[in-house]
Amino acid sequence: MASRGVVNSRWLRAGTISAGSSWRPGRRRALIYPFDFLLSVEHRVEGAAVLVTAEVTNRDTKPMPFGIGFHPAFLWPLPGCEGQDHTIRLDSGGAPALARLEGGLVDPSPRPSPFVDGVLALERGRFTGDTMIFWRVPGAGCAMAPRGRKCT
After folding, report:
1. What does the pLDDT average to over 62-74?
2. Which residues of 77-104 are buried (b: 16+ CB within 10 A; e: fewer)?
């Protein structure tokens, strides 16, 4: 997968209530994004939700265009479930349209949804064309699990 961002995330350990970090780009990243900035991000668990707050500070006098994207990510395979088939299940049973990247930008060509009755079977081949993007996912939740068996 091609890199599209300038900041990689950290793990939030089970049982943690909140975690925060600040980041400034180094010289290598300045070649990709030539702006001096400070990014501060906090992840806070409240009930069954994870709240994410980000603050970007422009540390220069010139205008600095930026965008921030947050999305769920799943460790696959789940620990203890190696070798088992996994699925992502949407609580709505929906089938959101798929988008892909082309040359680092979102390709506007429509693609059919890989979800069937709200279930996406995870297969390595699905990611050979880079990341999968779903702009509008119906419902309020999703879950990833091994298909049929429990993890050890």
Report:
1. 78
2. beeebeebebbbbbeeebbbebbebeee
Instruction: Please compute the mean of the pLDDT values over residues 123-129 and round it to a whole number.
Output: 80
The pTM (predicted TM-score) of the whole model is 0.60
- How high is the pLDDT of residue 1? 41
Mean residue pLDDT across the chain: 79
Q: What are the structural domain ranges in the chain? A: 1-70, 75-152
| C-beta contacts of 99-106 below 8 A and 24+ residues apart | 99/132, 99/133, 99/134, 99/135, 100/129, 100/130, 100/131, 100/132, 100/133, 101/2, 101/4, 101/130, 101/131, 101/133, 104/2, 104/4, 106/133
